[in-house]
Specification:
The complex is a heterodimer of chains A (about 625) and B (about 220). Chain A has about 625 residues and is mainly alpha-helical. In chain A, about 55% of the residues lie in helices and about 5% in strands. Chain A folds into four domains: about 120 residues, no CATH class; about 90 residues, no CATH class; about 100 residues, no CATH class; about 230 residues, Four Helix Bundle (Hemerythrin (Met), subunit A). Chain A is extended and about 100 Å long. Chain B has about 220 residues and is of the alpha+beta class. Chain B has ten helices and four strands, in the order H-E-E-E-E-H-H-H-H-H-H-H-H-H. The radius of gyration of chain B is 20 Å and the shape is elongated. In chain B, about 35% of the residues are buried. The chains are: A mainly alpha (about 625), B alpha+beta (about 220). At the A-B interface, helix 11 of A face helix 1 of B. Chain B: InterPro entries: UBA-like_sf, UBA_C_fun, UBC, UBQ-conjugating_AS, UBQ-conjugating_enzyme/RWD.
């Protein structure tokens, strides 16, 4: 699926990237090298200029997203003067909107801290006394300042980086001293602790609490945290006490699950939960940043950054198809096959390893170029709703020639009476029953006037259905062919091996077959979507030109497909190689032309639709020229 | 011992020892993880005098995930399904906290009976009844308490018949039902349609008789 100009583009992007684009992807580099070995034949242009149908994007690994999260957190720490753990909670609560957070924090720091679960709600009486007290002494400004400091200090006693953990052992003397609000009950007799969750009262029980001081045993905290992460996918782990809004900071979660986990807890389960927790945090960050999108492929943890497609309004002028750089699906059967065949026959693993290509602008998990997201969605919805129904209607029903109601004949004679308009007609010729006279059955004459008119009306009402099915069938055909590509790959691989045996060609030299198959599959994807586009394009010269390009590409693709399917004869191999290579380059060029032309059309606003599409002009009243 | 079992046993024991709350827990099928809780209907409500039973299932991840509760006794209440007994209460869903106990949850159910939340209904028809005509709703709820939860009920209802009165269960006026039944529609159909259209209180003036006849013909 991938060709080297895409890779070289990515490398180009690497250097002119903005703040978070310091990605590293070893896999991709390796692939790049590998492809270069045998792809020299197929280079169309060596120019590094980006094609108009491509979009700048960068792939980010989970680690690099975590790094940019950390940068944001540090940034907030620097500005607001809070601890990193608190800053992370604040940012998460505000959807990682730094400006909004800073603004809100400046307005009322205590409220923002409490709302985000980073600080305990001060008892109302206390806070007013502080305020009145400070208003006496200072201006209004310092009074709010002071509240800030007191809340953040509260948190810092728990999350200061010098201490290894954010959690607090009530039994330890330093901890109980640091907390004046901690009421006497628990510090008086720490040895008689009964966990309020599991009612365990054994002496070796470790008592843990968040900032709020609501303690429970470490085993309960562990089970609770795992349940929250695994069962609910929650990154916001609140104190277990009812109504308490304090949220566990990340290092607290880490302690509970990893570094200081309860002795009888399951270590693997803990680690799985911790990994999942980190992933949830990254997903939360990614989903609140419109410039980022998480790779939708199963098991993939990469993120793609595509700043140029961040707003919805650009989706009418571009199709932001991106790739996260990874391939295959971890743990899948295909992956295993690929691994074994790779060991036996060299670099064939990309036969099975689909590159993770998806659309940045909409939820479609494949390349829907050349058509824009809005139209692609419209088409998919229509197919979902209509195609089966339409097919059934087409083959099983007729329309009443007077009121156009759709009628299914489920028995009885040919004398039909429309249930809706009471029109009586003949099912066979669709003409009015009156013309059949009193004779029982007399529609053997084709050109009865009424019958001809009725059939005309019928055909007009069928036309739109026919039109849809025309496009749908071609769309479905290409989709089906693309699905069969796995089989074709296997078949081609077999042929390649045969060729090696019967001719002098080396493995590298027979790669032309594989490249051709890849190209065919890629072009079928393009072709598939051109039918969706053509269905909605308004009539006119633009559409004619588009359909010409579509026809040329389709013809080229079918020619190449045929060549690939043809049997191999030893003496013809050099010629076949020449032909396939030529055709592949031609097909590739035709594909470029279709993509290039539609993309420029979107940029220039050249395309007009025959339905209304979000973000585009309303369709003009269409004049029928039959 | 398993932490969940220890906790549930303790909760059951606590409930037995606590004589003031009037809440009881019994085992169903001898498993401590499937219980039947019961409590008296709160005073000064249509549920007063009733005895309400709740089916309690304790999930594997208890107490970190909420218990599953539903009413065994039929209750006429906006936040309880009149058909299945399913309960709409935040602490049984996202507002659950591991420190909540079976007892405290049952007490919450009891107080839910005192203060219905018709804006967040489980049973939309009942909620509509509640919002249009509180008086008529209370009467129906009291009648349900009487026939399903063993409540004292209204005097006239008690005196007149022993059999269940379909019209009163649906919270409708007998005169209205008779009126449409006289047109030749089956009684249960009339009750069904009138209940669905919420033909009660102030709504009676708003719904034309033609509309009802239309609905009756449709169904």
């Amino acid at each position: 699926m991938s060709s080297d100009y895409e890779f070289s583009d990515n490398e180009g992007d690497y250097y002119d990237s903005d703040e978070m684009m310091d990605f590293q992807n070893d896999d991709q580099d390796e692939d790049d090298m590998e492809m270069d070995d045998y792809n020299d034949d197929f280079k169309i242009s060596t120019g590094s200029k980006r094609k108009s149908y491509e979009v700048d994007h960068t792939s980010l690994s989970q680690t690099s997203v975590e790094k940019s999260m950390k940068d944001d957190v540090d940034h907030i720490c620097g500005i607001l003067g809070v601890e990193p753990a608190a800053a992370a909670l604040l940012l998460r609560h505000q959807g990682w909107n730094k400006e909004l957070l800073i603004e809100r924090y400046m307005d009322d720091p205590a409220k923002v801290l409490v709302d985000s679960g980073a600080a305990v709600q001060e008892p109302a009486r206390d806070s007013t006394s502080i305020r009145t007290h400070s208003v006496d002494k200072f201006a209004a400004g310092p009074s709010s300042r002071r509240a800030t400091r007191s809340s953040s200090k509260l948190l810092s006693s728990l999350t200061s980086p010098t201490r290894s953990s954010a959690q607090k052992y009530i039994s330890s003397p330093t901890a109980s001293a640091s907390k004046s609000r901690k009421d006497a009950k628990s510090s008086e007799e720490p040895e008689s602790f009964v966990c309020p969750i599991c009612f365990d009262d054994s002496l070796e029980l470790k008592q843990i609490a968040l900032d709020c001081g609501h303690s429970a045993c470490s085993g309960c905290w562990n089970a609770y945290t795992i349940s929250k992460i695994r069962d609910e996918g929650e990154h916001c782990i609140r104190c277990m006490t009812e109504g308490c809004a304090i949220v566990a900071p990340d290092d607290f979660v880490h302690n509970i699950l990893v570094s200081d986990a309860a002795p009888d807890s399951d270590t693997t389960e803990n680690l799985v939960a911790w990994t999942r927790f980190q992933e949830i945090l990254v997903r939360n960050f990614v989903s609140s940043n419109p410039k980022l999108k998480f790779c939708p492929y199963p098991g993939c943890t990469n993120t793609v950054s595509c700043p140029s497609a961040a707003s919805k309004s650009v989706l009418t002028s571009m199709v932001p198809i991106v790739s996260c750089g990874a391939k295959g699906i971890p743990g899948s059967v295909k992956d295993k096959n690929a691994a074994s065949s790779a060991s036996s026959s060299g670099s064939s693993n990309s036969f099975y390893d689909k590159e993770h290509v998806f659309c940045f602008g909409c939820p479609i998990e494949s390349d829907h170029r050349p058509v824009v997201c809005g139209v692609a969605r419209l088409w998919l919805k229509k197919c979902e709703d209509d195609s089966e129904t339409a097919n059934w209607i087409k083959s099983n029903t007729k329309e009443c020639s007077k009121c156009q109601s759709t009628i299914e004949k489920n028995g009885g004679c040919n004398h039909m009476t429309c249930k809706k308009c009471k029109y009586e007609f003949c099912w066979v010729c669709m003409g009015p029953w009156t013309e059949h006279g009193t004779a029982w059955y007399s529609c053997n004459r084709y050109d009865e006037k009424g019958g001809v008119e009725a059939r005309d009306a019928q055909s007009r009402s069928r036309a739109s259905l026919e039109r849809y099915l025309h496009y749908y069938n071609r769309w479905a055909n290409h989709e089906q062919s693309a699905k069969l590509s796995v089989e074709l790959y296997a078949k081609t691989e077999k042929k390649m091996e045969d060729m090696q045996i019967t001719s002098e060609l080396t493995w590298i030299e027979v790669q032309f077959m594989k490249k051709a198959v890849e190209e065919v599959e890629k072009c079928r994807m393009t072709l598939k979507w051109t039918y969706a586009m053509a269905y909605y394009l308004a009539r006119g010269n633009e559409k004619d030109l588009f359909e010409d390009n579509q026809r040329d590409l389709e013809k080229a693709v079918e020619d190449l497909s045929e060549l690939l399917e043809s049997p191999i004869e030893t003496e013809n191999i050099p010629m076949l190689r020449q032909k396939v290579t030529d055709k592949t380059v031609y097909v590739q060029k035709r594909n470029e032309i279709v993509l290039e032309d539609t993309a420029t059309g979107f940029q220039d606003g050249r395309w007009r639709w025959n339905v209304s599409v979000d973000g585009f002009e309303e369709p003009l009243e269409e004049v029928r020229v039959d | 011992m398993d932490a969940r079992l220890r906790r549930v046993n303790k909760e059951i024991a606590d409930c037995k020892n606590d004589k003031t709350s009037n809440i009881s827990l019994d085992l169903i099928d001898n498993s401590p993880f499937h219980l039947r809780g019961s409590f008296p209907g709160p005073e000064d409500t249509p549920y007063e005098g009733g005895h309400f039973e709740v089916d309690i299932v304790i999930p594997d991840s208890y107490p970190f995930q909420p218990v599953k509760m539903k009413f065994i006794t039929k209750v006429y209440h906006p936040n309880v399904s009149s058909a299945s007994g399913a309960i709409c209460l935040d602490i049984l869903k996202d507002a659950w906290s591991p420190v909540l106990t079976l007892k405290s949850t049952l007490i919450s159910l009891q107080s839910l009976l005192c203060s219905p939340e018709p804006n967040d209904p489980q049973d939309a028809e009942v909620a509509k009844h509640y919002t249009t005509s509180k008086g008529s709703f209370d009467e129906t709820a009291r009648y349900w308490t009487q026939i399903y939860a063993g409540g004292p009920g209204t005097k006239e209802a008690k005196g007149s018949k022993g059999a269940k009165d379909e019209v009163a269960i649906a919270g409708l006026e007998k005169a209205h039902v008779d009126q449409f039944e006289a047109l030749g529609f089956p009684r249960n159909k009339v009750i069904d349609v009138l209940r669905r259209l919420n033909y009660r209180g102030a709504n009676v003036a708003q719904i034309s008789e033609d509309r009802i006849v239309e609905e009756l013909l449709k169904s």
